[in-house]
Specification:
With 88 residues, the chain is an alpha+beta fold. The chain is elongated.
Amino acid sequence: MQQAKLIRQPRPVYPPLAKQARISGVVHLNAVIAKDGTIQDLKVISGHPLLIQSAMDAVRQWVYAPTLLNGEPVEVVTQIDVNFTLSQ
């Protein structure tokens, strides 16, 4: 089985309120990557409430090269971590 490869990955928008409050961290998401490489189902595992929506909005737009198993595209369940870091 080949590793899922990202071909489109828009960055999340840092929520202004989170930036103002100096909140950073990681949002952990559980995703189902469909046979065509699009994000099918997305669920929050953990993360700061002010960062979750922005992370989910960005990841929903991500597109992967289809994952192949024995030459056939398959659905994949994966964990995606979105990092929010404040620049100094």
